[in-house]
Amino acid sequence: MSFATTESIEEIKARNKELIQEVLTVYPDKTAKRRAKHLNVHEAGKADCGVKSNLKSIPGVMTIRGCAYAGSKGVVWGPIKDMIHISHGPVGCGQYSWGSRRNYYAGTTGIDTFVTLQFTSDFQEKDIVFGGDKKLVKLIDELQELFPLNNGITIQSECPIGLIGDDIEAVSKAKSKEYGGKTIVPVRCEGFRGVSQSLGHHIANDAVRDWVFDKLTPEKSRFESTPYDVAIIGDYNIGGDAWSSRILLEEMGLRVIAQWSGDGSLAELEATPKAKLNILHCYRSMNYISRHMEEKFGIPWCEYNFFGPSKIAESLRKIAGYFDDRIKEGAERVIAKYQPLVDAVVAKYRPRLEGKTVMLFVGGLRPRHVIGAYEDLGMEVIGTGYEFGHNDDYQRTAQHYVKDGTLIYDDVNGYEFERFVEKMQPDLVGSGIKEKYVFQKMGVPFRQMHSWDYSGPYHGYDGFPIFARDMDMAINSPIWGKTKAPWKAVAEPRLLAAE
Amino acid sequence: MAQNAEHVLDHVELFRGPEYQQMLANKKKMFENARDPAEVERIREWSKTPEYREKNFAREALTINPAKACQPLGAVFASVGFEGTLPFVHGSQGCVAYYRSHLSRHFKEPSSCVSSSMTEDAAVFGGLNNMADGLANSYNMYKPKMIAVSTTCMAEVIGDDLNAFIKTSKERGSVPEHFDVPFAHTPAFVGSHITGYDNALKGILEHFWDGKAGTAPKLERTPNAKINFIGGFDGYTVGNTREIKRIFDLMDVQYTILADNSDVFDTPTDGEFRMYDGGTTLEDAAKAVHAKATISAQQWCTEKTLAFIAGHGQEVLAFNHPVGVSATDELLMALSRISGKDIPEALARERGRLVDAMADSSAHIHGKKFAIYGDPDLCYGLTDFLLELGAEPVHVLSTNGNKAWHDKMQALFASSPFGQNCHAYPGRDLWHMRSLLFTEPVDFLIGNTHGKYLERDTGTPLIRIGFPIFDRHHHHRSPVWGYQGGMNVLVKILDKIFDEIDRKTSVAGTDYSFDIIR
């Protein structure tokens, strides 16, 4: 049971602040000063969460963050299904990120689609010493020969590329010319750039701008526009999320002309400047290209949230607000159609989850976006933080999502997260694979909230019942009653006065 | 709408219904600029041909679906096998996130490791400050007994000197002067994870035996009766190490398991998170210099380490992931010879039971053709076992196998009538394997989780043995070494063989070959 239900807001705030101070005592002074800026307690009415963010991680603390390559290859580019993404450098990066994000797609893998293949230049010592450009040239020729139906190539730089002075841009240009203007995109997402995945997202967005949009020609337009054309931006179709979102947009009368980038194709990227509205789910990873399209092509963009019925309905109405009555009516029709499903899900699961507390630590949009879905089930998020958020993420979080007194931890590390969970005793932790088993050992129910713990989709009305089912099975699994050997069990302390 | 609160449909079923299938078909037709289905089919068929295989095998620059990872993964794996040891990887931080995820996905266990989080400025000025700050933070936060340092390729490319950096960090007071910080350079562009295992283990032994980087006297070896055992990089470390300990105990041999990570990758769920658990004690690591001999279960994981140990006067022996009767026989006889202890009857009985099981089931395996891929030692051990079973390991492929491995594999094939048409493929990847399976089909494929793509493409049933196994649970808890391990491998292979017969004969409207007795 959480202390949130037994104490006043002021008491909770005081306790959370005390907890932060306690955690900071472990650090050498210099580190304690730096980490103190990333930990806080949310004060209602404030414009942000009162933490610094998007700063370098501190060496040796066991940050949960990844790198720019992970942000570009792993997140933004990797899911584009008809292009081949080369992990350019040593073998590891591509190996560890191979197929691990579950960006679902339809296609014949290895023939016309390539997401779940691991293409690498597998750098050897001689490539470091003499440079890898010649190898890259040959590699592209080999790709063209063995995978003739690929629609484009991206070169995802690993750390050494930027350090040894390779000119992947020159190679890309030359090979593109040689292959009749083929789309070949060099991406400077070396892992040492920036402080987290986040810069990789930005670099990947810029690469779309420079190497796809700036090379568009009118004849590439393949369909007639309609007034209802939209693009889904920042949905990676993890467990099929983009599909369970797309179906709602189509049902309300919109036409989705592109998915960025889950189950996406090069043709969809190229067609997006024809959209009437870009709808943006993961603001963090794709706000850059959305802003660019607004400036260059005059396309407005709006953020939305398809987690949980409250936010879904709010978002459908918000999106419809950009269109005429036909779409507005469509939104209402969709909301009404799914209401019985929502009611049935809430009736079944809310009694099992009411009052349960959650602590989150995830990337992208989820540290805020999923809060509504938990609340729809009667649950409460008592702590949250971003792996690689910026201040604008914390502003959105403060203004639209978290409650007064919520513990906020930016770029939390293993030590801090364990201590926070140990002291706050949430009923559920939602974070990543590196955290999952730590908390389960502690006896705390856990769900991976990057990969949906191999479940999903969680987006849209079709996703909500799955989300509810999964949270229920995590929290109410009978196994959590077995973690203590009965001969070792200590009697629960009882409050005699209350009985 | 197919979704339902009472019977919730997730991705496995949801998207296969008509609403979503229609939606995906429209998306493809309208917006994807998809290829002509006939053309896709033509290329798909072409990719199965000998002509494609020839082009595929002519590749020089491109690697597709390799069966290997990079050095630091192996370094982290070896390091956590020591008591209270925190692996510290010097370089970019994303790498560490990857190693931890990779190990957790296989073992379904926590994997603790820190990074020195180097970024652009460190690329320019070097990572000394990252090392000094990082060591201080790790030491204070995670209270390790030892911090084992290795490197990512970034630190290697810019040429950071670990020895000097650690020394300077200690001078700056990051960790106490006598705190153990062994190190190994583990460039990702040399070798693979098995090389990293070797380098890290050698680094740790060198630290304890050869004077802790000039800060202590070198140890004088005074030989004792103990035997050191090294498992190598092994996805089955939990089951295998415990099986080896059981065998050593049965034989009453005194031993030290070096880099024993069998507990840290198998901690209980009882309310406590054990960041460190078990492992070779630092005292034992140091005292291991006095052992009579060191046995490595995996030759290609320990080439440098064994040479280093041999240089200290010990007898060293290397096996190749010993699976099956003869490989276990040889291991036990070597143990007996070195220790002077007899092999107890209990182990002879176990041997007899494995032979019994193989005799009982041989008819179902004999003559079956297999393809195997994985780390070089694992490939060798499995090949050896299949030959004992009268099976034909037709294609044996190891992305991180070298010329010496190839020659040793070919010699193994040559030693058995069942190996006559078999070939070893060093340095090749799973896209090469795809061509092999299409052009020279086999009955079964043995490999890690990534083999499921080959199973889907070529229809060759996959038997999951290797690393990583992400999509099946708990296999790492059972040994594949020793007679007992051989039994486990035998059962695993047989189960797949029988499942396949059932699958092929489970045909509505027929009732032949769908037998209940086999």
Describe what this molecule looks like in 3D.
The complex is a heterodimer of chains A (499) and B (518). In chain A, strand 8, helix 12 (283-297) and strand 9 form a beta-alpha-beta unit. Chain A has 499 residues and is of the alpha/beta class. Chain A has three domains: 3-62 and 354-454, Rossmann fold (3-Layer(aba) Sandwich); 68-194 and 196-215, Nitrogenase molybdenum iron protein domain (Rossmann fold, 3-Layer(aba) Sandwich); 229-336, Rossmann fold. Chain A contains 20 helices and 14 strands. The longest helix of chain A has 29 residues, at 325-353. Chain A has a six-stranded mixed beta sheet with strand order 1-12-11-10-13-14, with helices on both faces. In chain A, strands 3-2-4-5 form a four-stranded parallel beta sheet, sandwiched between helices. In chain A, helix 6 (133-146) runs parallel beside helix 8 (168-178) and helix 14 packs parallel to helix 20. Chain A has helices at 9-24, 29-36, 68-77, 92-96, 125-130, 133-146, 159-164, 168-178, 197-211, 241-251, 266-271, 283-297, 309-320, 325-353, 366-369, 371-376, 391-400, 414-424, 433-441, 460-475, and strands spanning 39-41, 83-88, 119-120, 152-157, 184-187, 229-235, 255-261, 277-280, 301-303, 357-360, 380-384, 407-409, 428-431, 446-448. Chain B is of the alpha/beta class and 518 residues long. In chain B, helix 4 (50-57) packs antiparallel against helix 19, helix 5 crosses helix 11 and helix 8 (128-142) crosses helix 10 (162-171). Chain B starts with 10 loop residues before the first helix and ends in a 13-residue tail after the last helix. The interface between A and B is large, with 129 and 107 residues. Strand 3 (119-120) of chain A pairs antiparallel with strand 1 of chain B.
Order of the strands making up the biggest sheet of chain B: 11-10-9-12-13
- Beta-strand content bin of chain B: 5-15%
Helical stretch tally of chain A: 20
The largest interface is: A-B, 129 and 107 residues
Oligomer: heterodimer
Instruction: Give the name of the CATH superfamily of the largest domain in chain A.
Output: Nitrogenase molybdenum iron protein domain
Radius of gyration of chain B: 25 Å
Q: Count the strands of chain A? A: 14
Give the overall shape of chain B.
Answer: globular
- What is the CA-atom radius of gyration of chain A, in angstroms? 24 Å
Please report which band the strand proportion of chain A falls in: under 5%, 5-15%, 15-25%, 25-35%, 35-45% or over 45%.
Answer: 5-15%
Helix content of chain A: 40-55%
Mean pLDDT of chain B: 98
Report the biggest beta sheet of chain B as strand number plus sense, adding barrel if it closes.
5 strands, parallel
Spatial order of the strands forming the largest sheet of chain A: 1-12-11-10-13-14
